[in-house]
Amino acid sequence: MSEHLFQSFRGVQDALRNTDLEQSMYTAGAIIMDDVLLTLHGAEHHRRRTASFKVFGRGYFRYYERDVFPATLSRTLEPFLAQGGADLIDCGYRVTLNLTADFAGIDRPEQSPAETAALLHCVKRFSEAATLFHSKRDHAEVIAAAGAALEEFDARFLAPSKARREAALARFAAGEIPEDELPRDVLTVLLRSYAELELSPEILRREIAFYMQAGAHSTANSTVHAMHHILDWCEAHPGSRAQLLEDRLLLQRFVHESLRLHPASPVARRRAGCPTQIGTQTAVDAGDDVIADIHAANRESAVFGADAGEFNPYRSIPAGVWPFGLTFGFGMHACMGRDLDGGVVPRADTRADDHQYGIVMLFVESLLRHGARRDPANPPLPDTSTQRPNWGRYPVLLDPR
Fold first, then answer.
1. How many domains does the chain have?
2. Which of 17, 99, 168, 371 has the most crowded CB, counting CB atoms within 10 A?
3. Cα distances (Å, whole numbers) of residue 140 to 129, 318, 341
4. How far apart are the C-alpha atoms of 197 and 210, rounded to whole Å?
């Protein structure tokens, strides 16, 4: 078996769009990732993804961004504002946790700090297991912790949420309620298609756990990276904070530039299920490994300019290329939450007052409005438990008003 590395933008695109290549990076984290949407292939993947699209439509994202997320963000930030500061890692997880739970279908009836802490504990264990390929921790320890978290998650959160949705589906089947009164979330969709999708209780549990960790983990880290770059920029360019708060489209451009530099998964790994060809020249045999270096592709100077490795939100982007590059993937495994996180890429005729910006930008905007600035007494530190270039601690000071 051979290994094929692709680092150019076009090469990575060709690898990610090739339907003969199967996911191969999440085997180590199978306790969370086995048979979930991200790791399925072929007809099974198509059926599961088609079902999930009933939730992840742009109309839903637009509704969530405008009508639901602002209240969730305000409520979650309130205690951090009261104490005058926050660790952006913890704060980011708490903000995105509520968002993710809403579209995954996990109820939080208590709405208490203890309930949030318990759910956050589970989701962090899921994230550590899902990204085990890059973890520097003892793998057996991570897997054991994830297994215990799954049991806790199932008993306290998933089982009650599932029971409520099954009751609602029974009422719908009996004609007691209309379809638009059913919850609009992944859990409800999967329960409606349970037999068709050939699900089991274990697969359902892993799928919901996967959605919880994917939504909270990647969005929280993306927010911290964006804040880091923007704070650097504001220090180097006096007056730019006020400019960003006056021009929301410009602020979204800053967020997109950070997303380009920091894909949630720096590389994608695939394995050929049959002989295939990538691009016009590379022949790949069955069983060969293919590595798509998204981090390198997003920094290719031929596409993004001579300063492609630097943060420059004013760079020119070629036609047909997203400003965030391939950060959200490409092809059949492209992230379905792209528009929710990053918003819609504006066009020349986009109106600032009628645009979908994405929750990362809204989160960043709120932090900037509350005077977010680095805490000189507590500098940020990288996350040393993983090979992924994430922050492990990022304290900021905040103004209460």
1. 1
2. 99
3. 10, 45, 32
4. 17
Q: What share of the chain is helix, strand, coil (3-state, %, to 5)?
A: 55, 10, 35
Let me know how long the chain is.
401
Alpha helices in 1-85 (DSSP H): 9-17, 30-33, 42-52, 58-63, 69-83
| Partners of 290 in beta bridges | 4, 270
The Cα–Cα gap between 323 and 304 comes to 9
Number of other CB atoms surrounding residue 5 within 10 Å: 14
C-alpha 2: how far from chain center: 31
Residue type, 269: R
Q: What is the pTM of this model?
A: 0.92
Contact in structure between 196 and 47 (CB atoms under 8 Å): yes
The predicted structure's pLDDT at residue 111? 82
The residue segments making up the domain with residue 95 are 3-391
Between the CA atoms of 40, 145, 264 and 253, what dihedral angle is there, to the nearest 10 degrees?
A: 120
In a domain, 294, yes or no: yes
CATH number at residue 97: 1.10.630.10
CA distance 248 to 65: 14
The Cα 38–Cα 186 span in angstroms is 14
288-319 pLDDT tens trace: 999 999 999 999 999 999 999 999 999 999 99
Could you tell me if residue 345 is inside a domain?
yes
